Amino acid sequence: MFEKQVKNFDALVAKCPRFERKGKSVPYTSANGYMFALINKEGEFGIRFSKEVQEKYIKEFKSGYLMSHGSVMKGYVLIPNKMFKDLDQLAVYLNESYDYVMSLEPK
User: Fold this and answer.
1) What is the pLDDT of residues 6-31, one digit of tens each?
2) DSSP assignment of the chain, as one string?
3) pTM over 0.85
4) What domains are there in the chain, each with its CATH number?
5) 105: number of CA atoms within 13 Å, CB side?
């Protein structure tokens, strides 16, 4: 599961030229000092959004928050695996997340 998700994640990030994939054991993206997408050790994928957008997407995706090491990753919406069937749409969400972290005060 994990290796398949890493391949999916790499294909997704390849559609987004404004940033690149980082991490060896835990693939992630970051910008402006903030991580904004990652795959946890269980192979689950999460994208970071503003608080208002999180609630909207949790309902729309019929999902929840990403968990990592037994804790809720605040701000990260768990992306259902079925959404990887449409990488173009998923890239829209990932770019939205990038725009969100770029709007924050740099770390």
Assistant:
1) 999 999 999 999 999 999 888 999 99
2) -HHHHHHHHHHHHHT-TTS--B-SSS-EEEETTEEEEEE-TTS-EEEE--HHHHHHHHHHHT--EEEETTEEEEEEEEEPGGGGG-HHHHHHHHHHHHHHHHTSPP-
3) yes
4) 2-102 (3.30.1460.30)
5) 0
